[in-house]
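Budget justification note: compute hours in this period were largely spent on complex prediction jobs such as the one shown. Inputs:
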Amino acid sequence: MPRPIRILVAKAGLDGHDRGAKVIARALRDAGFEVIYTGLHQTPEQVVEAAIQEDVDGIGLSVLSGAHMTLFPRMKQLLDEQNASDIILFGGGTIPNEDIQPLLDAGIAAVFTPGTPIATTVDFVRKACGKRVEA
Amino acid sequence: MAKLIGGKPKSKNGEAPKGDRALWEAQFESAAKLPGANDRTISDHPLKPMYAPEDVQGVDYATEVGYPGQYPYTRGIHPTMYRSRLWTMRQFAGFGTAMQTNERYKFLLSQGQTGLSVAFDMPALMGYDSDHPRALGEVGKCGVAIATLADMQDLFAGIDLGKITTSMTINCTAPVALAMYIATAESQGVSQEKLGGTLQNDMLKEYIAQKEWIYPPEPSMRIITDMIAYCSKNVPKWNTISISGYHIREAGSTAAQELAFTLADGFAYVEAAVKAGQDVDEFAPRLSFFFNSHSDFFEEIAKFRAARRIWARHMRDRYHAKNPRSWTLRFHTQTAGCSATAQQPENNIMRTAFQAMAAVLGGTQSLHTNSLDEVLALPTEKNVQIALRTQQVLAYETGVTNVIDPLGGSYFVEKLTNEMEEAAEDYFKRIDELGGVIPAIHAGFFQKEIADASYRYQREIENGERIIVGVNEFIVEEEQQIALLKIDREMELEQCRRVKEFRASRDGGAVESAIAAFKRAAETDENLMPHYLDCVRKKATLGEISEALVPIFGRYREPAFI
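Corresponding output:
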């Protein structure tokens, strides 16, 4: 039997809105994944370091402060610099539609906006991060 | 003897009037019902399909409901309510630089808004200057960037602080904001005793829900009691704390949790100030509250009514306040941001209107109506105007302002009010058993209660028990795009440049000695508020003032748990 998928649910920047991050963390855990939560107010450097140390398959970053165009690309850049590009970076929050494509172009694997069914996120994680488990 | 609202209604000859309850029950039981969670409120509170006199049997009108403006204020805090004065229409606003927000304020005032409400950006809310590395990407994004006295002066340029009242939603950096506001008023020639307004300044709910902090809870409480003491003497018209349930609800709590945790926080502030040697009637009249108005119409109204009654009872009987103004719970309301949907965002106009009506039927003193686009970004001018117009239609066209507490005496609303009060009292007992609010925060009690409630609610939406229009039902495939407010990146660079200029133009020695005196005061139990003012007048920045006490008070870290 393959090992369970490991996910780091992350809050970065100064944003304290953790309702969505906690709901997603519980839902991923209920779906059978191993979930680690960073807690609030992490720097991108701290999140990436934790992801590598914990050997996670994916990072789910939650941003509701409007700083998504800074935090997501920065975190992706750090993953690439540390030869950890195989860790899937995805996320969600209050992200306007017009910002989604630029984020995908920057290498963010998926962006989930408010109202996305939890099942959609769970299915994505199972598929995208499952590949890393098999690899 | 006081009359009952309930009791057995009698007909003329003393017999029970006609009306067959058993027949109705049988008919109700045998009929087909719609699926879904219609036997519970949005907060999972059980509901009967119908309420009747027996539900309010034994309720004593005089002591439990009473007249408006009279203890226990269930029906409202003023004898006249909206017959004398409408609520204050106060739209929370702030974005970009101080100059950009100043233009928005002038627009809102020109549109008939009657008070100002400042939204600060995340760096200001967390104690960082705009040019701090941790502020990168956050400057001016979810509020206005304020790091210096010059920023505050630009924010209120051309607005007479002697005439307007201002609410500032800021917590761990609240004393800095108040000091900057006082110094700005002084530069306009307005002295501090004339200033009217409100600081949110409610740190307890930060640890519980909103999660913006610098120092741990204990020193934060000291700063708050210092400010209460300072304002009682020097800024007597200022509302020193707006004890807030709004963020607790937004974080996913139920209505009863919002009510209970907020009032428990309120009692904790009262106890802290009394312990610091202040007389309850000196400061309690300046405490105010801030609640959420969510979508479950009657539950919200019952929550507001219960809040007034609980506060009055505890303030009079438990804290022995003698001034009736210490007993009255005044509150601001904001419609529920968390109920707004990104899907078909125009529908948020209707959600907001119903929530605003619940707040008014619940007797609010001031109101912010959310704009339809706030789920995605800060609102555009057009959408703020629609939100303000929603309040104006409610105030001038619907007639709900004409009769005080029009739902008072409703079997359902009175029963639900009683049940909300009972639920809150149960929570007070549990909090007491944990040793009070601060130990309960350290134990993660509130945080876990809220996370449990929010996960339950989310699952109900996921499995279709609750329908959210446009999200899990009545979906359209091709969503129309709406125009959103953009904060350009140039703004952040411009703001950082302004902060650097400000630092370069001041007397560095004066800043250093003010900060040094401030730190020394923090080591003793001297009141810190005059030091905050001195630092601001000597042009220390918000970040410098906030950072100065970290070596003394420490920096708070929340234990992370799901």
